[in-house]
Write a structure and sequence with these properties.
With 178 residues, the chain is α+β, with helices and mostly antiparallel strands. It has a domain of 121 residues: Beta-Lactamase (2-Layer Sandwich), CATH 3.30.450.150. The protein is built from five helices and four strands. A four-stranded antiparallel β-sheet has the order 2-1-4-3. A hairpin with a 2-residue loop joins strand 3 and strand 4. The longest helix is centred in the N-terminal third of the chain and has 21 residues.
Length: 178
């Protein structure tokens, strides 16, 4: 009887030790993407001279044409390289709240030298620190205007969904960003 008990205890001990040895080790924490140090500065387009009224109006006309083609009444703003309003259009029936939003998208795109879609993508990735930055808008529809490698302004559209705003802004930006 003693031999059976001793054998059972030794077998149980062996199984417990083998199970403990095979237990999964906790996974190492995932690297924090904010700790990555890029070699080059992202979104480092230099600021240039302010966009002219003529070019700003051409960008708005192209954006309005795209919005009309699709039946989307939007507000469209163009700011200069210092984020100052140069031209604005409110299409008939465009949402009133989107007047200020279109200007904000344009200003954010100029100040941060990147499309406002970058802020939206950061929020979707859980990088909520961007909400602590002044003048950020985390909604697509703001696009920098770059001529000869320099940022001369930005265009912002609002009144539709973010993707609709972006489509119309892209059409307006195409008059400058070639």
């Amino acid at each position: 009887m003693k031999i059976c008990t001793l054998t059972a205890v030794l077998l149980a001990t062996g199984l417990l030790m083998a199970g403990a040895a095979n237990a999964q080790q906790p996974a190492a924490p995932a690297p924090n993407p904010l700790d990555a140090v890029p070699e080059k500065m992202p979104f480092n387009t230099p600021y240039g001279a302010p966009i002219s009224l003529e070019k700003a109006q051409a960008a708005i006309q192209a954006a309005v044409a795209e919005a009309n083609k699709r039946g989307w009444p939007l507000n469209i703003a163009v700011v200069d390289s210092g984020a100052n309003l140069v031209a604005f259009a409110r299409m008939d029936g465009a949402q009133l709240a989107s007047i200020a939003i279109s200007e904000h998208k344009a200003r954010a795109a100029a100040k941060f030298r990147r499309p406002t879609k970058a802020g939206e993508e950061a929020m979707q990735k859980g990088l909520t620190y961007i909400t602590t930055l002044d003048d950020v808008i985390a909604s697509r529809g703001g696009i920098p205007l770059v001529e000869d490698g320099k940022l001369i302004g930005a265009i912002g559209c609002s009144g539709g969904t973010g993707s609709q705003d972006e489509v119309v802004c892209t059409a307006g930006a195409a008059t400058i960003n070639k």
